[in-house]
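call fold(seq) -> tokens
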Amino acid sequence: MIIVIPYFLLVSVIALICACLRPFDSFGSTVMANLGGIGGLFLLNIKQELRGAENFKKDLPVIVISNHQHNMDIFTVGKILPPKTVSIGKKSLKWIPFFGQLYWLGGNILIDRSNRWKAIASMNKACETIKEKNISVWIMPEGTRSKGRGVLPFKKGAFHTAITAQRPVTIVALSQYHKNLDLNRWNTGRQLIEVLPPIPTEGMTTKDVTDLMKKCEKILRDKVDELDAELAQS
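ret:
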């Protein structure tokens, strides 16, 4: 971790330069995420296996959802972040040195969760971004890091966005860190990630938000359990 932190700061500076050259374009975020993920996982000695990557290329653009576990998601998710994909994060991220400015300049969507109406406006902006820029949006619908508590109950925002934009939902399941990784060892462990086929939302209305949310939550929770069970047996 002592090596990872300065490496991450270096990547942030490089990506910030890219973002300044192409402000509010997803290019800067992609550079930071991919470089940060590749180097971070190498330094942490985490063996990552990605399955179903071809599903990222279907029915673009999409709403991507995944389980949110730890700050380490920035490395594990970062390595697999597809091009032309932005994310939704807390407004407070903007003030983190280098990273926050890059996150903002990279075209990611900042949301004020303390204000319901501003949060709704941010989700509406996500719909506009999808349509106008033809890019995907990555959302972690638990709304907070689970920190070993499994997949937490979902919030509705991601599914409102998917239905309003009439774009599919692509589920990405990540095996749980607390069960399968040990940062106190040199051989930290393996992580399995599986990208599932997109779930269409065409023809759905706001009345279908809750059903879609529950369906996706069950699929993600079951797949995470399946990946954890596979790692436990290996």
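The first strand starts at residue 46 and ends at 51.
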